[in-house]
Amino acid sequence: MNLGISANTLGTPGNPLQVAIVGSGPAGFYAAEALLKLPLTVHVNMLERLPVPFGLVRYGVAPDHPKLKQPTLVFDRVARSPGFTFFGNVTAGRDVSVAQLQDSHHAVLFAYGAERDRRLGLANEDLRGSHTATEFVGWYNGHPDYRDRSFDLTNEVAVIIGNGNVAVDIARILAKPIDELRKTDMANRALDALEHSRVREIHIVGRRGPVQANFTTKELRELGEINGWYPEVSSRDLELSAICQAELDPKKESTAAKNLEVFRNWSTRRGTATDKRIVFHFFKSPVRLIGSDRIERIVFEHNRLVGSPFAQLAQGTGQTVELSAGLLFRSIGYHGLPLPDVPFDESRKVIPNDAGRVSGTVGLYTAGWIKRGPTGIIGTNRADAVVTVQSLFADLNQLPQQPKSGSQGLAITLKSNQIRVVNYEDWLRIDARERALGELKGKPREKFTGVDEMLTAAAS
Ligand code: NAP
To answer: Which of 7, 177, 280, 303 is deepest in the core (most CB within 10 A)?
Structure first.
């Protein structure tokens, strides 16, 4: 019986489906996992700008939350699968063009995340002492791009703008006892700076209310459990309008309802005179950043919420309030960046797509934050990547059918462009070296924070 399958049918050992994935964070690895589970012969070639894999898991997850890094166990299993090749230290769009990737692959899947901070759009945003969340998170996590940043922790007051989990991470890292942080894989420079921190007041400011905040309850609650610190919230901010109440009512078990319970509990607590404080402010938008050569004061405008349930927006009332602070963290979310020759939606800052198929193209796909925007937790990217891979599988007949050179073709292109590729075995050497260095200090690992150091360890 002839099933129409020949030695050259796409997805068979004679003509494996060759897919290049750009980005080695959660979205990239979950897409690779889903691709390698397809009932086809598939080869996945993953490109990563840094010599080390795992993106947001290595550089975004807070060091004191090691459990959230456990997905790397899955990623490692995927990376060791037959048919998977890692190309670290390779920047797509610079070291190899998208057209070259398409020449050597049947499909290219973009999963390079959303690494740029949103901006407030205020004058003085870049004054000394005013930082983006990315800078601070990248610094304490030892990201090569941010390792040399410095933060003046001699200031007693820090303000964090934004009501998301990154704001909570920043507050917790600023507040947590140094002895607890020393047991984590936090970068040494950050540990040394935090050891001498004089910060004793952290203000977390949201433009909308407690019901609209994006905190997950577990992370929020942790801020009330830090020795020597107490959380403060005004009970007035917890009085709900009918519309806010309507947002809670249908889902009594919602995160917002649980968060509100935590806030209500905190609003009745009082710390001692020696306690340091984490103060939550709601319904306030920053309108002016004041300082001569560094940030000194932040003016906030009080907001009221307008709009229907689940679509309420902050509207200024004209009334203002000022906070004096020498340290400001803008933690208001991220956005994606375009890649040369790939469609980009400038207003949403994502790659436009339909269920992961890049709009107006054949053979281009996308997953993760660059597909849908910077939302959700790490696990959200698994289901999201599966959707994209299902689209790719359904499109199999529309993809180029002739055999593609895959990893061999890619390796030749990179060699001719004189790129020093870091493969997965190289990463395992870096990994082993980092763990060994960490062990000497009672840490899970001591990350290399410079690309040169990583390349040296890879070659050792
Ligand atoms: P986010 O959850 O989107 O929060 C951004 C916050 O910034 C929101 O409160 C938003 O308010 C506010 N904002 C935006 N523009 C503003 C402006 N112009 N002025 C004042 N406030 C403004 O972003 P994120 O905290 O960066 O987190 C990104 C993603 O990573 C989230 O999905 C988060 O859950 C995830 N994450 C998870 C964990 C974890 O699971 N442990 C840790 C870190 C991050 P509006 O709501 O009014 O827009």
So the answer is: 280
Record the tokens describing residue 263, joined without a space: 């806030």
CA dihedral 49, 50, 53, 58 (to 10 degrees): -120
The token pair at 156 is: 């007693």
SS3 451: helix
Choose which residue among 211, 215, 332, 381 to substitute to test ligand 1 binding: the one with the highest number of ligand atoms within 8 A of its C-beta.
332
Q: What is the 376 CA–ligand 1 centroid distance (Å)?
A: 10
Span from the CA of 163 to the centroid of ligand 1 (angstroms): 6
To test the pocket of ligand 1, the residue of 57, 122, 166 to mutate (highest count of ligand atoms within 8 Å of its CB) is 166
> Phi-psi category of 14—alpha, beta or left, where left has phi over 0 and alpha has psi -120 to 50?
alpha
What secondary structure letter does DSSP report for 240?
Answer: P
**Ligand 1 proximity of 207 Cβ (cutoff 6 Å):** yes
Query: Does residue 71 have its Cβ closer than 6 Å to ligand 1?
Result: no
pLDDT one-digit tens code per residue, 389-407: 999 999 999 999 999 999 9
CA distance 237 to 260: 10
DSSP line for 393-417: HHTGGGS--S---HHHHHHHHHHHT
Q: Is the CB of 90 under 6 A from ligand 1?
A: no
CA triple 294-118-181, angle to 5 deg: 70
Residue ranges of the domains in the chain?
Answer: 17-115+336-422, 118-333
Give the β-pairing of 229-233 and 276-281.
parallel
Average pLDDT over residues 172-189: 97
* Superfamily the domain 17-115+336-422 falls into: NAD(P)-binding Rossmann-like Domain (3.40.50.720)
**In this structure, what token pair is assigned to residue 88?**
């670290």
Unique residue bearing structure tokens 């763990």: 435
Q: Which of 367, 345, 380 lies closest to 108, judged by CA?
A: 367
Tens-digit pLDDT profile for residues 335-375: 999 999 999 999 999 999 999 999 999 999 999 999 999 99
The continuous run of DSSP H or E covering 209 comes out as none
Return mean pLDDT, the chain. Answer: 96
Superfamily of 118-333 according to CATH: FAD/NAD(P)-binding domain (3.50.50.60)
**Alpha carbon 315 to chain centroid, angstroms:** 29
